[in-house]
Design brief:
alpha+beta; single chain; two-stranded antiparallel ribbon; 4 helices; globular
Length: about 160
């Protein structure tokens, strides 16, 4: 069962941009991602072409945040969870092809041009908490809490509010 509600998936598909937040040593980093895929289980995969701040932060601290926002309607969501590197070659290849096949021609050319000099990593993000970013909703309360462990010693059951 997918932890990401359909309305969140639809917004991600419509906006075609994710903002990925990572942190290590208390210094936050945010970075846009335009080459990504959401699978039927609700995992989000994206290409990590460069080995800069996001790559290094996830290597040290898997807790991450993914945000999507529609600036015209003033609606959005923040997903908090864990990111990891996909290491299985077959899975990496399959996800890479799925992502690249969905890109428009110009975007695909840019991605593949950058990927020629380095083998892209594939990041898998699994959401544990989902918050509304809508200004008229209570943004301190999650709209979804996954049953996976979210903090040391605390586990939560799946809840859709």
């Amino acid at each position: 069962m997918s932890v990401i509600p359909d309305k969140v998936k639809q917004l991600i598909a419509k906006e075609k941009v994710l903002i990925v937040g990572t942190s290590y040593h208390g210094i936050a980093n945010v970075s846009p991602r335009t080459a990504f895929h959401i699978d039927s289980n609700g995992a989000i995969y994206w290409l990590e072409i460069f080995r800069h701040k996001t790559f290094r932060n996830i290597s040290k601290n898997s807790w991450s945040s993914v945000s999507v926002f529609d600036k015209q309607k003033l609606v959005g969501f923040q997903l908090k969870g864990r990111a990891s590197f996909v290491v299985d070659r077959q899975t990496k290849s399959q996800i890479m092809m799925t992502i690249v096949d969905r890109l428009n021609r110009l975007h695909r050319q840019k991605i593949l041009r950058n990927a020629k000099s380095r083998r892209p990593n594939i990041i898998k993000f699994s959401a544990n908490l989902i918050f509304s970013l809508n200004p008229n909703e209570l943004s301190d309360s999650p709209i979804v809490i996954n049953s996976k462990r979210t903090t040391k010693g605390n586990s939560y059951s799946m809840v859709r509010l």
